[in-house]
């Protein structure tokens, strides 16, 4: 069984049962396309999250992203919350601090005109693992990021110590692409970012 990597288009090999492949080039782990949810099932799954923008636990979870923005950007900078979901908590926290940030989500805030603008920073919390076509998504995000800008993401990385068989992260049926440090280095190099910061779940690509 063979299926090319949706990020770098190179060969992959079966990694876990017949459910996940691992790319021999960028080291990304990607779900067998036969197991992707259809759009309606995917939306139902997202609606199950029941997140609340006023929940302090949710605000604390996204703190690595909001802290990075508040520390490195000002209200004069423009931002995009890409994949803002049903409860855009990052946008709420930043807007409460006077920041100018817009929300885009293909299911819950589908405003494609926002993808024709340029931004000083783009935030994406627990989003990039859902990319069905990560190559196209990263090309787009890189294209709409201004010089000296940053793309600030959160995702759970795989490493050699991860017990993949019992790993909760792979069990979410909407998680179709899982990254490791090597994958993030590939993304930084391939899409022309000048700096990469990895701090646990926080991933920052800088221009």
Automatic annotation (TrEMBL):
Full protein name: Methyltransferase domain-containing protein
Organism: Desulfonema limicola
Keyword Transferase: yes
Protein origin, superkingdom: Bacteria
Record carries keyword Secreted: no
Gene3D superfamilies named among the record's database cross-references: Vaccinia Virus protein VP39
GO molecular function ontology, one term from the record: methyltransferase activity
Keywords (A to Z) from UniProt: Methyltransferase, Transferase
One GO term (biological process): methylation
